[in-house]
Write a structure and sequence with these properties.
Blueprint (H helix, E strand, L loop, with lengths): L2 H15 L12 H10 L5 H14 L3 H5 L3 H8 L5 H19 L7 H5 L6 H12 L8 H9 L10 H8 L5 H17 L18 H4 L2
Helix pairs in contact: 2-8, 5-6, 9-11
Bound molecules: iron/sulfur cluster.
């Protein structure tokens, strides 16, 4: 079986067993998604969802966040960790959105990557969820699970390399949903420690499972 065929099998099984919604509760608001994706670095999506509640009451859009008092912004996002760096980049991102994009979130990769704190992972999430343009979101779950499944060595942790390897294996129209499913699957079944391999629906495709 080729890697592409194996990936097709994985996609089909996850489609039948795992939800495909975004774990970040951004309520369809593009600005919220961009901010929440930035906050989620080294933080759980659940915590980001909680913190975002008060954050967006105070700063509901790019215009308001661009004018935020940096200390107030830091305090609001403190529970997410790395709060000084994140506050600085959120403010810078908001200023750029206001100055260059009329407060809206752009869709082209180049403009997204030019925003402070936005790398390929966030850019692909935005392009997929907001604009239906697909893109592999190589986050920690995707990297870990697809490594275990044997699409590349389990030791590979470089998000850009993972994205490059996975992109040709996954049809464009499946990329966004698959990456969301991998997040839920990574939380519930293929967890970082002690994955639940017994009874895992992907076991027959999994190299990690073959080796234990
Ligand atoms: S068999 Fe185990 S390692 Fe493989 S995908 Fe399932 S839970 Fe993850």
């Amino acid at each position: 079986m080729t890697k592409k065929e194996r990936m097709a099998g994985v996609i089909q099984i996850l489609k039948n067993t795992v939800r495909s919604d975004c774990a970040l509760e951004f309520n369809g608001d593009p600005f919220r998604l961009a901010v929440m994706a930035r906050l989620s670095a080294q933080c759980t999506d659940a915590r980001v969802n909680i913190v975002s509640h008060d954050l967006f009451k105070k700063y509901p859009n790019a215009h308001d966040m661009a004018e935020a008092d940096i200390t107030e912004l830091e305090n609001l996002i403190k529970p997410c960790g790395l709060y000084r760096t994140k506050a600085k980049s959120l403010k810078e991102m908001s200023v750029s959105l206001e100055e260059k994009h009329g407060g809206k979130i752009p869709s082209d990769m180049e403009s997204l990557l030019a925003l402070s704190g936005v790398g390929r992972k966030i850019a692909n999430l935005i392009r997929g969820d907001l604009y239906g343009l697909g893109g592999v979101v190589a986050d920690t779950h995707c990297i870990r699970i697809c490594g275990r499944l044997g699409f590349y060595p389990e030791t590979l942790k470089d998000a850009v390399k993972v994205e490059k390897i996975l992109t040709p294996l996954i049809p464009k129209e499946e990329q966004t949903d698959l990456c969301h499913r991998l997040v839920w699957f990574g939380r519930d079944t293929c967890t970082a420690r002690n994955p639940k391999c017994n009874g895992c629906p992907l076991a027959k495709f999994c190299k990690h499972n073959e080796n234990i």
